[in-house]
Write a structure and sequence with these properties.
Elements: E1 10-15, H1 31-40, E2 45-49, H2 75-85, E3 89-95, H3 100-105, H4 134-150, E4 155-159, H5 170-179, H6 195-220, E5 225-228, H7 231-235, H8 244-247, E6 254-256, H9 261-274, E7 281-285, H10 299-311, E8 315-321, H11 330-346, E9 353-354, E10 358-362, H12 377-390, E11 395-399, E12 411-414, H13 425-433, E13 437-441, H14 446-452, E14 456-461, E15 466-470, E16 487-489, E17 493-497, E18 503-511, E19 529-543, E20 546-551, H15 561-573, E21 581-584, E22 589-596, E23 599-606, E24 615-622, E25 630-632, E26 637-639, E27 642-644, E28 647-654, E29 657-662
Parallel strand pairs: 1-2, 1-8, 2-3, 3-4, 4-5, 6-7, 7-8, 10-11, 10-12, 12-13, 13-20
Antiparallel strand pairs: 9-22, 14-17, 15-16, 15-18, 18-19, 19-20, 21-24, 22-23, 23-29, 24-28, 25-26, 25-29, 27-28
Helix pairs in contact: 1-2, 1-11, 4-6, 9-12, 10-11, 13-14
Length: 663
Amino acid sequence: MKDWYKNNYRRHLLDMHIEDWNDKFLSEFDPEDYCDNLKRAKIQCAMIYLQSHVGLCNFPTKVCREHKAFCGNGKMKALIDGCKKNNINVVAYYSLIHNNWAEINHPDWKMIEKNGKSARENGGRYGFVCPNNGKYREFLEEQIKEMAAFSEYDGVFYDMPFWPTLCRCDACKARWKKEVGGDLPDGEDTRGAQWGTYVKKLQDWMAEFCSFVAEVTKKYMPDVTIEFNNAGIVAFDWTAGSTERISDLADYTGGDLYGDPASHSFARKYFYAITKNQPFEYMNSRCLKLYEHTVTKSKERLECEIALTRAHHGANFIIDAIDPVGTTDKRVYDLLGELFAKEEKLEQYNRGKMVADAAVFFDSGAQFTAEGYSFGNKETAVAAVRKFTERHIPVGVVANGHTENLSAYKCILLTGVQDFDNPEIEKFIKYAQDGGTLYFDGRSDKRLISRLLGAKEDGTVGDGRTYIAPKKRYEDVFCGFSEKYPLPFGYNLPKLILPEDAEVLATVCLPYTLPKDNFHFASIHSNPPGINTDVPAIVYRKTGKGAVIWSAAALELDEREVFGDILIGLLSFAGVKDFSVFADCSTNVETVTFKDGDTVYVNAVSIIPDKKCKYPLKLSVKTARKPERVIELCEGKEISFCYENGRVNFSDEIAFEAAYKIQ
């Protein structure tokens, strides 16, 4: 395998999911113009469509059909050769599950929904083929063999490795009957006896299919890198069957994601944590939304997204979409060239290991909610990362299969973790018993509750509106909330029976009346607290050499600033202090720090795409020795600093992005 991806930070994909029923479609495709655009944009790697969701191939094929625009003219081969001549690496694109041509021409391969029809037959635009179908796998191997014969590539990217619908085709039914027995569940009974097995089978089957794809690819193209689109792990729920078992098959991790800055920050840290090789790849569309073909994001927004990916030392990957006739908007590539010119100067400083004092666990295998709740681990994990980034506390993400270095963290948060027999839980228990500080909340894994808290579950308390009332001696931790004025929550809370050595910091408080009773109430507008209970709500307990904090409610999920302050205050109560980096600046600025030996790199980027805003920034960074100098890398200026108590302290003002080297 070639390691072409190292120091390759500017990548590109031109979406070409284009039909050929109209002779105009892709008729103006020009490989020289395509290459010229890549050079304009300073692109180092081009992902090129050899096939698409439409299913038509852009190369000669005997088992499928070639797109009319490429038959006999050598345009696609000329594009690949042109990229190589210009020292642009080439990754071949192939769509695995989404394939309209395959469904139309091989209806026995298609995924079947509960009503006995496919998604297209039910009015959808996309055709889905089932990875459990043996004939489809034979076809896929022939396609990979044909791609290998067509040209040479640096890598292959496989898109859509997930279940877009809960398939009930004959192949799935037969596999379930063979491996489990009985009839395949319909997936709607989310608490039935076989539901847990069904969730795991969706994960097993998709991971096994991707393993098949990887093995076949290496059989015919042994020197290419392999990448699967990992967006589904973060973007979807349990029905997708996406886990790290798929990303672990790839040479590096990447995927296209859409959402707010908080979810993007989480995903970058997650990709950084799970990728087999750095840099991870983060895909951004140049359009606000994929279906808005003619609307390009503002220059400031694109610059913000590019800067944030580079701040995490990731590879920026820009997705554009071709015009149906085969042309592109050159203005987009001129803009990208301008933006990448700035980031290109900073790429040489993408060194070292990300600094993280706190870690948040993301359990991709249990992306569902506990019974009676509208949120789960993914929602709370994203929110928890946001709480740390807003306070500029170095935070990372821990994922299944990537828990080797837990002892490096001052604290780990297991938020909204489901009781789903995840073996990784044992490692977190050992982490706490060996001296770490572990925070978890809600109706969590039974092993955490019994072995770390020494507690027993005793149902739930509340009727849709509950409160958490701090005990008087702990009120300082709760930022002004008290027994009289407790913290409000809009859901029931779990009850635990605790051992005597557990320290209860707060208890559950209930409204005067049942919230759903609209004829008997204390206040017509609300359900104010009125009934104090002795039900534990927030608990601290020492375990082994470490300690745990348990909260009945998901403090991290509440968007109000004070709830985040309480979360950090609880960790401080448990002794989690003196973070590697302190930053005093706006929550509109995200800081990401890397350490390379004795050299520290601190990146500060505005998450708000507005260059008119200027942010004062005060940084305090722990170092092993007094540094010789601090340099702001964007402008090359030296920053004055002071060094005391093992920390480098300095101030600056940033308009959009800054990168500091402390050496």
